[in-house]
Amino acid sequence: MATDIETGVDCRNLPYDSGSIDCVVLDPPYMEGLFRRSERHLAGAGTYAAFRSTYSNGEPTVEGPKYHEAVLDLYCKAGNEAHRVLRPYGILIVKCQDEVSANIQHLTHVEIIINYQSLGFYTKDLFVLVRPNKPAVSRMKKQEHARKKSFLFSGIR
C-alpha cells in the first residue's frame, strides 16, 4: 500500500490498524536542511528543487527539535508507528544516511538502530549503498568530513 506525504499521509500517523501490516518500508527525508523554521532556509532550492519536492512537503517545520535532532525525531516517531502497524515478526526496511550538521558528524544509522532496539526491533541486515558518481557539492570551502553513503537496514519486530 503506497503511503507518502505527497498523498497526505504522514509516516508518524499511518491510517492502518495495529498489527495489520507484514512489511513497512521507511524512506523519510534524512537531510536536516528540509527541517528548517523558515521556507527561505529550506534546503532544495534552485537547481536542487527536486530534493525538496521529492523528499518533503516543502513546508517549514514549525515545532519540535531543530536540525539533526529533527531528523532523528522523525525517524523515532515513524519507528514507533511502524511498530504499531506491523504484525509480530513483521519486517521494517529503513533507508537513512549519516550526516554532518553544524560540522558535527552524526552516525544517524546507529542512532536509529539503538532507538529501534528499544522498541523491540532487531537489526537483521545492514546494507551500505555506494553511489556510482560523485555527489554535487555547493558552497563548501573546505571538506572537514568523509563523504557519506546511504544505509539501508532491515529489522524484525
TrEMBL record:
<protein>
    <recommendedName>
        <fullName>DNA methylase N-4/N-6 domain-containing protein</fullName>
    </recommendedName>
</protein>
<keyword id="KW-0489">Methyltransferase</keyword>
<dbReference type="Pfam" id="PF01555">
    <property type="entry name" value="N6_N4_Mtase"/>
</dbReference>
<dbReference type="GO" id="GO:0003677">
    <property type="term" value="F:DNA binding"/>
</dbReference>
<dbReference type="GO" id="GO:0008170">
    <property type="term" value="F:N-methyltransferase activity"/>
</dbReference>
<dbReference type="InterPro" id="IPR029063">
    <property type="entry name" value="SAM-dependent_MTases_sf"/>
</dbReference>
<dbReference type="InterPro" id="IPR002941">
    <property type="entry name" value="DNA_methylase_N4/N6"/>
</dbReference>
<keyword id="KW-0808">Transferase</keyword>
<dbReference type="GO" id="GO:0032259">
    <property type="term" value="P:methylation"/>
</dbReference>
<feature type="domain" description="DNA methylase N-4/N-6">
    <location>
        <begin position="21"/>
        <end position="142"/>
    </location>
</feature>
